[in-house]
Write a structure and sequence with these properties.
By secondary structure, the protein is of the alpha+beta class. The protein has helices at about 1-40, 45-50, 50-85, 95-135, 150-165, 190-210, 240-255, 280-285, 335-340, 345-375, 380-400, and strands at about 140-145, 180-185, 215-225, 230-235, 270-275, 300-305, 310-315, 325-335.
């Protein structure tokens, strides 16, 4: 309303001024005629009057004209302005009410703007949470660790840590779950899982080209941590570790070509996790950081070598296998010839099983031969039992008669 009044005020003032001038012009125009009439009416008396009466008459005329002018201004000027105002569309508008309404409207707009901004912020936070949850990794490519020397050494470290701080037993990773994470991703449907399985299968060709039939020995040595929240075994830096990083980058590109957002922004750092505080929310309330002095004796310990022979597409959320390893959707295997050649630990385990099987067979054969010989010999326990049973039957028949 105020901007409208500001725009109309100049035009209103000019119109009122023009009307006032027009009203004033009428008495001024009529003045000579009135004076002439007065002169004609008073001519006889004026002729005989003395000259000194002219000054008095002029004073009276001026006084009458002044009174007439004041009455005209008081009665006619407001009428002109009122008539002009009456023609305006906002004549019945109460300026005070309008200003109060305008102030109330501005206050309402400010409150509405605050509510809108607050709602937009809340919606933005909800969308961000939903987006983060939607793209939170739930699948990963795993390099399983199966060498008994490595798993046994890590269990020894875990036991040593638990002896110093019993609370950290909840943070330990089971030996069956030991692995190196090559790639993480989010798969929200069975269709995307099928696409990921296909991408893993297609990656085998490219990985074989990188390996070129070579055997990849991954050496694990030393212990480190991530922000004192995760404890892991380091992968020793050598040519084989560099090759593993190239494989990870190749697989990442292959999955992305299939439309799967795989990988992380940070650089790939292969490691073998054996403890993490995030495994237990209750533990995180009690223990804020992992004290590195707990594993000080193993910081440079050599844990052993793992031969690269398999990659698995695993689920983080589905139920684990009985041995503690993750639910596996699909796998690709490398170096079949090298994998067919067992290492020392596998040979020891195989020989033990063969010896046990041979001993069991020998014992069973001996028992069978002993039983057969005892049956063929007279007076054997078997014959005595048969005779006793036949005599008992005969006595029962006699009693029944």
């Amino acid at each position: 309303m105020r901007p409208l009044l500001r725009r109309l005020l100049p035009s209103l003032c000019s119109a009122a001024a023009r009307a006032l001038l027009a009203r004033r012009a009428v008495p001024m125009a009529l003045r000579p005629a009135e004076r002439a009439a007065r002169v004609e009416g008073d001519a006889p008396s004026a002729a005989g009057a003395a000259p000194e009466h002219d000054g008095l008459e002029n004073i009276q005329q001026k006084k009458i004209f002044k009174e007439t002018k004041e009455k005209t201004q008081q009665s006619e000027e407001p009428c002109a302005v009122d008539s002009l105002m009456a023609e305006m569309p906002f004549v019945d508008t109460d300026i005070e009410d309008e200003c109060a309404m305008h102030a109330t409207t501005e206050l309402s707009i400010k409150k509405k703007r605050k509510r809108t901004i607050g709602r937009e912020i809340e919606e933005g936070i909800e969308r961000k949470k939903k987006k983060n949850k939607q793209y939170q990794p739930n699948y990963f490519i795993s390099l399983p660790i199966t060498n008994p020397k490595i798993t046994g050494s890590i269990q020894a470290v875990q036991d040593a840590i638990i002896q110093k701080d019993q609370r950290l037993s909840k943070a330990m990773v089971r030996s069956g779950s030991f692995h190196v994470t090559m790639l993480v991703m989010h798969l929200s449907s069975e269709e995307e899982i099928s696409i990921a399985v296909g991408a893993l299968s297609d990656s085998k060709v490219f990985v074989d080209d990188l390996l070129k039939g070579k055997r990849v020995d991954l050496s694990f040595q030393g212990i480190d941590h991530f922000r004192n929240q995760v404890g892991f075994v380091n992968l020793a830096e050598n040519d084989h570790a560099t090759l593993l990083k190239e494989i990870a980058e190749t697989m990442k590109k292959k999955f992305q070509e299939k439309g799967i957002m795989a990988g992380e922004e940070r650089a790939f750092k292969p490691h073998l996790t054996f403890m993490k505080l995030s495994k237990s929310t209750e533990l995180r309330k009690q223990v804020k950081k992992i004290d590195s002095s707990l594993y000080e004796d193993f910081k440079n310990h050599y844990f052993g070598d793992e031969i690269l022979h398999r990659f698995d597409l695993c689920s983080m959320l589905k139920k684990k296998q009985p041995n503690g390893y993750y639910y596996c959707e699909s796998s690709i295997v490398f170096g079949e010839k090298q994998a067919a050649e067992p290492d020392d630990a596998e040979l020891v385990s195989l020989s033990k099983r063969l010896v046990e099987n041979a001993v069991l067979k020998a014992v069973q054969q001996y028992l069978e031969e002993t039983q057969n010989k005892s049956r063929q010999t007279d007076g054997s326990p078997a014959k005595t039992e048969e005779a006793a049973s036949s005599s008992k039957n005969e006595s029962d028949n006699d009693n029944s008669k």
